[in-house]
Give the backbone structure.
Amino acid sequence: MAKKNTTIYDISKKLNVSVATVSRALNNHPRISQATKELVVNMAMEMDYKQNNLAKALKSGETKTVGVIVPYINTNFFSSVIRGIEEELSPHGYRVIICQSHDDADIEKKQLNTLLHTQVDCIFISISKNTSDLEYIKKVISTTNTPIIFFDRKKDIPGISTITIDDHKGAYQATEHLIKEGYKNICHFSGDQNLEIYQNRLSGYISALKDHNLPVIEDNIINTGSSIEEGINAMKSLWKRKVKPDAIFSASDFTALGVCKEIKNLKLRIPEDIGVIGFSNEPFTQFMELSISSVDQTPVMMGKVSGNVFLESIKDNFSGITIEKKLVLTPMLQIRQSSSRKK
Amino acid sequence: MAKKNTTIYDISKKLNVSVATVSRALNNHPRISQATKELVVNMAMEMDYKQNNLAKALKSGETKTVGVIVPYINTNFFSSVIRGIEEELSPHGYRVIICQSHDDADIEKKQLNTLLHTQVDCIFISISKNTSDLEYIKKVISTTNTPIIFFDRKKDIPGISTITIDDHKGAYQATEHLIKEGYKNICHFSGDQNLEIYQNRLSGYISALKDHNLPVIEDNIINTGSSIEEGINAMKSLWKRKVKPDAIFSASDFTALGVCKEIKNLKLRIPEDIGVIGFSNEPFTQFMELSISSVDQTPVMMGKVSGNVFLESIKDNFSGITIEKKLVLTPMLQIRQSSSRKK
DNA sequence: TTGTAGGCGTTATCAA
DNA sequence: TTGATAACGCCTACAA
């Protein structure tokens, strides 16, 4: 029934040597003769020996496993970041556990506890929309040895490294691009302002307007969620205004898509009558017959950098230093048809 | 420096009881007095005790962790399946480790070994395009206790449960739908024929033609990959033929997208001149201005069912039975503009 | 160069 | 009802 794995003890018996010798041979320990080493290694191969990671982890305190908590795994952005983390860490022998918070702070806390419980070596988090209990995370930092790293959706907490993109800059460039294309009355569809990323996109929009001497109009900043539906509805009510916009910079691609659909519905032309630009560079934006301009967040790169920050922190740890890094990646403006009015 | 976790040993010392007592109290063991149990539980709470999963796993042989191997994690299909697996298993205390094979059999084998090595309780795999070494997997099955479960991209191996969708049926319905819309000369862009899913889509296409007394023409079955580019090129060369097709059933949505782009380029109309239908129900298919018909694979459901098959197998295992399940989910045809010629 | 033995934190068996 | 102790499989001082 139960198929037992061979252990170093089994090998030691077979070879009439001690388990210590076997362990040393298998770990390339310097203090062992070449001859016995080969003997052991061959026997291990023959007996199909597989090191028991559990025992090793129990002894060493390192599980060679990291955890990632994201709102949902099946979105282009988060799955791409996870891909980056996996590809950066996998070659170094780390496994990646994924958890979903369903964009809920309570579930997020539970997942965090589970990962702590699993004794992962590091936890990567992109926080949920309604996360506000920073004390809890601070407590984790101060009472455990498990480093936490924030990516994209972060909060500023001492001791926590963060990897983000420059949302302000991305939004600034997007808005500036619209201005240069000759759009004058640019509205911004902002996302959930509890998240820094959306705050920054909003501030980038405002900065660009100011720098180009355009008025910042309160009513032109419309608080939407990130769905197609909300884009449609917001555009609908916007078009009932006396003074109509000639461009929309949306903090979300899905909302931008909704905008495009409604514009078409209103029998207006993109980009001639109205310019549109989104954020995230979702795959569909480039597939559309009328492709949608967007801001690429380089998610795979973000994942790789996040993984690398962890790897570097291990090195640093040997010298007893803990460094808090704040890395900011540069977004990439993708100009497509929906915002290219000039030839 | 090192923040040590409290262990049951710490609690036992504090309370002047044995570790065995502490362990029993914490595990709701029947043979313990209510009084001491409360004493221990409260002290554990006070000392912020967290059970060490590693030690428990080492003792019990169960890690409460499963592994998933997919070609790439950042695709809609695979990330959705993983979401389903996570959501089914997480409530039962399981963690999910994700691995990418990069659609390569060698890497896949390495990842499989890593997971075995990590002593996960189950491994879910959607095999890579060029996986052919079935002996290796059979060996894993026969020499370890770790169950393997295939989803979507499978091979038939005794002892391995599989969860797939009925690709034949999905393809059949898609083709039949085209026929009913009045298309007569339907071409099929098939995927990699090393994978069963694509074989089945091809056979579904053929069956539908036969059942409706349409000729199965060898030249109408075009072996493409799954990229936009290949869709464009295939369509291009197809249009140089004397006898031109009036519909394309593509085994991939991306190829279908390429087809649509090329059709537009050729100044032809969809669906009037040519009907198009893809497979997978990628998000973009419904977002397009001219939405693309497709076959939904219900990936989240596939993940949940996969997870459930594992959970059930644990129950069965208590009775010493190992059941090999072959579950087939029903695909959902999504009819959209690209194939709706009739009103 | 090799062996002995203790410990990582739990659970389970056997006594008491 | 409780306690002592032996595993689980590995690594690593310390001895030899």
Q: What stands out?
A: The two ends of chain B are 73 Å apart (CA to CA).
